[in-house]
Amino acid sequence: MIEKLVQDSTSLLRDLIRIPSFSREENRTGDTIERFLQQRGVRTYRKMNNVWAYNKFFDPAKPTILLNSHHDTVKPNTGYTRNPFSPDIEDGILYGLGSNDAGGCLVSLIAAFLYFYSQQGLKYNLCIAATAEEEISGINGLELIVPDIGSLDFAIVGEPTLMQLAVAERGLMVLDCVAHGQAGHAAREEGDNAIYKALRDIEWFITYRFPRESEEFGPIKMSVTVIHAGSQHNVIPATCEFVVDIRVTDAYRNEEVLDIIRRHVTCDVKPRSLRLKPSSIPKDHPIVQAGLALGRTTYGSPTTSDQALLDIPSLKLGPGDSARSHMADEFIYLNEIDEGIHLYIAILNKVVNG
Known about the structure:
By secondary structure, the chain is of the alpha+beta class. 30% of the residues lie in helices and 24% in strands. The longest helix has 19 residues, at 334-352.
């Protein structure tokens, strides 16, 4: 049965590669995924370009595992030498936009879902969700349908990790900061220089160390990345604007970090969003222990994914290599898809049937 799933998954991935599915334009790949599941007797649900389904013997009294990956892609960069929408196979390599990020993960998770779909007596329900807008952290992707899916116990989020266990993921918070002074003539002792005020706050961002540190990532990283001030050489600037990029670890919630910052600096601080939260799953969680028992290793992922939109424990795991994501002539090895399906099934089997 598994070998048939591998064949069908490779065929599905090739179909998906043929269809442009840039973020917010995933309707046709949504149709393809929906049709693929329905042809196998699975009842599907859809909201905009998000498709999800439950195992055949869903029991509301049991906890539910979410299996999630995305079917949107970035736009191909100018370095492509191949047709990004031609799913060519050469020497065991499948080329095409979205093959690695995250088509291989998505079709492998769908295969694992189908493997367990008709099994009775599982300890957990399974929900497969193929979602949109991951590449732009959009509001009409996974975040849109989580309330419709229902109660979830934990999640496997399919992203290329070489099938190693990403047990934590950094969050992202971008701050727009404004230091206020008073304008004056540079030749006289006038004004209150906003640049000097900003420098004091910037020095704090450079030197401050948050008390709690992540086991996987160490300290939170804050970087001032943009600064604007002044209009001409002889005018003391009344405002100085700067941007801070903050990579929040699983030791804090975004709201906690923002509160600490506001208590230490004098500038106005406005976050662009608090949505992209850090995430983690305990190493003693059954799904992590199942992966470790199969020879997998754990690590912390520096890149963001749809894990950031979940308020439940989540494990990032999938075939392919994150280093290939968004590269020219993107590809995935066929044996990575085979391994991904076998390992997803083996890891889940230890939890749902163990």
